[in-house]
Design goal:
homodimer; mainly alpha; two-stranded antiparallel ribbon; 7 helices; 2 strands; elongated; DNA-binding
Chain lengths: 165, 165
DNA sequence: TAATTATGGATATAATATATCCGAATTAAA
DNA sequence: TTTAATTCGGATATATTATATCCATAATTA
């Protein structure tokens, strides 16, 4: 049971994009520099966010990435699902039908109880992440940030964001 | 985010062991035949259950596997943890410290908010599985089993279990 | 037109999951 | 005491997935 590190990268990337002023954007390289991660691989994660319609991309000289909608309507589950997909983590191979005492098709109308239990647990996992919007992350992060760092972030965005008017 | 199939195998194996009479045991090969899975790989999962003290093993001519404690006190989480370990699925690499605006150590006294959210979600996942004891699986499975199959299972156990007196 | 940027595919490598086998230790029965 | 059966741990092999990079192409703006 493991979650790819792309989820972490994408979550932090979205957290920065949420700080951008209206109509501003950040390029792939700028995001990679800010996060301190390799740009080519980060691009992969950003593409996944784009396919999931969580970020809007714009090509060209003033292009880059920006959030597709309000930060309050994007949850950690949205980001996780964009990167990892929505397939259940527990894959039922219908073991109950195997062997000398295998269950008949008639007994398998309902899903396997073990699989059902895992499905239920995954729902709880998903719900917990769905309850955390990007705004929560933003608020908590700024709450502990020292004043000088807030200024540095503001300056960096000012200098690196495109499309700011 | 994925769970190894060993968890499924182990869960079904435990479900059968829960049906055994007191002091009875099933050998590796008998379990593999019942589940319809390859015996050598199943042995790996059983070893994990043994290390986690969920099953008791006995070597020798009348040896085999049996539950280490009451089926009501073994949950699906116990089995999952035995196979997959208890390390968090979300691995925080402290991205917040990277880059030109990285957080200072003083700002990182508390765990990263993103990591904390995932930790909370995992707790919900764990709790959901912890709430499902083996007895639940047994009860639900027998509830939908046809009468003739119940008899076949009883007969198969009678013929394949060791240590029955 | 030129410069800049994201996209998608292809590729390479590392890590993990899956699967099997074998010798050693253990145990009960002959 | 011997023999047969059984689990255990390690070693190994293969398949699948994760991680990471690169490049040609399309799109966009100055």
């Amino acid at each position: 049971m493991k979650i790819g590190k792309g989820v972490e990268w994408a979550a932090h990337a979205c957290a920065i994009l949420a700080l951008l002023p209206q109509d501003a954007a950040l390029s792939r390289d700028a995001l990679a520099e800010y996060l301190g991660v390799p740009a080519p691989y980060l691009a992969k994660q950003l593409q996944a966010l784009s396919r999931a319609n969580l970020v809007i991309t714009q090509r060209g000289v003033t292009g880059g990435y920006r959030l597709a909608r309000d930060a309050g309507s994007i949850s950690l589950w949205d980001i996780t699902a964009a990167l990892e997909g929505t397939q259940p983590s527990f894959r039922c191979t219908e073991i109950r039908r195997n062997g000398p005492c295998g269950a008949s098709p008639g007994e398998c109308r309902r899903p396997c109880d073990i699989a059902a239990a895992f499905q239920h647990a995954e729902m709880a996992f998903r719900d917990a992440l769905s309850a955390v919007p990007l705004t929560d992350i933003m608020y908590k992060a700024t709450a502990v940030a020292f004043e000088d760092r807030k200024g540095r972030i503001r300056d960096w965005i000012e200098q690196n964001a495109t499309g700011m008017r």
